[in-house]
Automatic annotation (TrEMBL):
Mg(2+) binds at N8, E36, D153, N155, D255, H256. It comes from Halostreptopolyspora alba. The record marks N155 as: Transition state stabilizer. Its cofactor is Mg(2+); Mn(2+). One of its GO terms (molecular function) is double-stranded DNA 3'-5' DNA exonuclease activity. Belongs to the DNA repair enzymes AP/ExoA family. Keywords: Hydrolase, Magnesium, Manganese, Metal-binding. CDD domains: Nape_like_AP-endo. This is Exodeoxyribonuclease III. The record marks D226 as: Important for catalytic activity. Gene3D superfamilies: Endonuclease/exonuclease/phosphatase (3.60.10.10). Residues 6-256 form the Endonuclease/exonuclease/phosphatase domain. The record marks H256 as: Interaction with DNA substrate.
């Protein structure tokens, strides 16, 4: 494994119609993590769930039309695990991981939240359960001489440099102080590395999500909420990263763009 890409497809059926399959056919990635697939396997065309040259793990949510994560890999996974031990989110379609040689790759769709609603409470319960899992999984994989990268839509902009209009979003879910503090704990207490930020420590962005409303994409008024969060050993092997931003608004097949990282193979 040398190249990993992650993208929230904002509905896999719609993305497949608008350009995802063409992108998949052209990508050099060895592993592609998808979030917000919002589809059962039976609802997807064969070219989506059985594309030539790919092994596909599709983990939809029990609630139809919501969430859903997937992993596309060039080689068949050695093992696949769904969920992270929290009963509330066991069939929520928000986390799946696969062992691929010496690296475990996970696709995460952390709840988006909305201040003052049950959605925000759900997000906070997810965060509270997920951090101990990350601590435990790092210890487990490193004890095995392996590495882990959690790719996906974390739905939190960590720093002011991670969103264009940060001053106007300090009370918005996704940039709340307690959410940002929680992500700091992932990096500082659990010891994971934000791979793209480590490669671009002093840059604004690069953003990975732009609202469909207004001219956010044209003005690059985006958020960086899609991450590859890796154990230190793997993060040190990252040599290049890029956000595959569409050339124009009309060519987008999601409101997110793929975040792709090249690693020195293990």
């Amino acid at each position: 494994m040398s190249t990993v890409s992650t993208v929230n497809v904002n509905g896999l059926r719609a993305a497949a119609r608008k350009g995802f399959l063409e992108w998949l056919g052209a990508t050099a990635a060895d592993v592609v993590c998808l979030q917000e697939t919002r589809a059962q396997r039976s609802q997807l065309a064969a070219e989506v769930v059985e594309p030539a040259g790919w092994h596909v793990v599709l983990e939809p949510a029990a609630t139809k039309g919501r969430a859903g994560v997937a992993l596309y890999s060039r080689v068949e996974p050695d093992a696949v695990r769904v969920g992270f031990g929290a009963a509330e989110f066991a069939d929520a379609g928000r986390y799946v991981e696969a062992d691929l040689g010496r690296v475990t790759v996970a696709s995460l769709y952390l709840p988006s939240g909305e201040v003052g609603t049950p959605r925000q409470e759900e997000k906070e319960r997810f965060m509270a359960a997920f951090l101990p899992y990350l601590v435990r999984r790092r210890a487990e994989v490193e004890a095995q001489g392996r590495e882990l990268v959690v790719c996906g839509d974390w739905n939190i902009a960590h720093r002011e440099a991670d969103l264009k209009n940060w001053r106007n979003n300090r009370a918005t879910s996704g940039f709340l102080p307690k959410e940002r503090a929680w992500l700091s704990r992932v990096f500082e207490e659990a010891g994971y590395v934000d791979v793209v930020r480590a490669l671009f420590p002093d840059e604004v962005g690069p953003y990975s999500w732009w609202s469909y409303r207004g001219r956010a994409f044209d003005n690059d008024a985006g958020w960086r909420i899609d991450y590859q969060v890796a154990t230190p050993g793997l993060a040190q092997r990252a040599k290049a990263a890029r956000v595959e931003r569409a050339e124009s608004h009309e060519l987008r097949w999601s409101d997110h763009a793929p975040v792709t990282v090249d690693y020195v193979p293990m």
